[in-house]
Design brief:
By secondary structure, this protein is of the alpha+beta class. The chain has 8 helices and 12 strands. It has 2 domains: 118 residues; 165 residues, no CATH class. The strands form 2 sheets. Strands 1, 2, 3, 4, 5 and 6 form a 6-stranded antiparallel β-sheet that branches.
Length: 313
């Protein structure tokens, strides 16, 4: 029988302090790739066209249009290579190792040109401070391959739980996707009703983009690897609009808490990773915080929720 130690081994340790410099570098590399997807792909509601997705070995853009067909860019965090592949047969790669953001940026665009892709981006990062232009960033240059691989393995585990949670909702729901701006993975449910006009701000993001993203009522759960301000990998859950009652709701597991400063429920990754049943612990958090959002905002849960397990037999 699988014991608790075996289960912990399946959910790797990803302490922020162990790879924060690498995290900062890889975050910026994903922004470069994500901005290519942003430019190449038609705009979708809530900026869903810009996101990356967990793949069998890292993060991928999925297919993007270009004049000769489609192409995609894949971060392989197991073998530590970035691949560019085109439907016209073009293939190129960029090695992932300790190198500056500027160096990565230059080689990637050289490789894109070599396979016939004419791409351009707004070459400054979003949601970070300072926002050093990519071609000038010689500051961020760390890459700890083992830590990156551990982070990817955690994403793969989380992806499966998020996908399972998403399946029990028949209303409008986002894909399980990875936002390179904030470097987090999320899945978002919608009530179907318009929301008040969003007035908050996000670093280096136009207000109009944020207002469209939050144009309708949402309950969103996600995972974030942490920052200098909050140096802990954690799961989060928030809703918009947010009532005073939302943060007062009882949620699971017992270790989850509401952060008034962040305006969301938080569950530290290590609580999930070290639990007897990591998947169930995370599902408890996602379901109970969704219920806190839906109940306090009076969503029509009967019309929005579903259970298709009968088809799985």
């Amino acid at each position: 029988m699988e014991n608790k130690i075996d289960k912990i081994a399946q959910w790797p340790e990803i302490a922020f302090e162990n790879w924060k410099d690498t995290l900062a570098t890889v975050h910026l590399w994903t922004q470069i790739v994500g901005k290519i997807r942003l430019r190449q792909t038609p705009w979708l509601n809530h900026s869903w066209h810009v996101t990356l997705y967990v793949s069998a070995n890292g993060l991928t853009t999925g297919s993007m249009p270009y004049p000769d067909g489609v192409f995609q860019i894949d971060f392989d965090f197991i073998h530590h290579v970035l691949h560019v592949t085109t439907s016209a047969g073009g293939m190129a790669k960029v090695e992932l190792y300790p190198r500056s953001v500027a160096d990565f940026y230059r080689e990637l665009f050289e490789k894109l040109e070599s396979v016939g892709i004419d791409a351009s981006i707004h070459a400054e990062p979003n949601e970070v401070d300072p926002a050093i232009p990519f071609e000038k960033d010689e500051t961020h240059r760390s890459y700890d391959a083992e830590r990156v691989c551990d982070f990817y393995k955690a994403l793969a585990k989380i992806q499966n739980v998020f996908t399972k949670f998403r399946a029990k909702f028949t209303g409008k729901c986002s894909p399980v996707h990875f936002f390179w701006g904030s470097f987090d993975m999320a899945v978002t449910r919608f009530s179907g009703r318009p929301a008040p006009v969003y007035s908050g701000g996000t670093l280096n993001i136009p207000l109009a983009v944020m207002q469209e993203a939050y144009s309708h009522e949402v309950s969103s759960c996600g995972f974030w690897p942490g920052s200098e301000q909050f140096p802990h990998p954690a799961f989060y859950s928030y809703c918009y609009p947010t009532s005073v009652e939302f943060g007062k709701q009882a949620v699971k597991p017992n270790e989850a808490f509401f952060s008034g400063e962040m305006g969301e429920f938080i569950l530290l990754y290590e609580v999930v990773q070290r639990s007897d049943d990591p998947e169930d612990t995370l599902i408890q958090f996602m379901q109970s915080t969704y219920e806190a959002a839906a109940n306090t905002a009076h969503w029509d849960r009967g019309a929005l929720e579903c259970d298709f397990t009968c088809f799985e037999k």
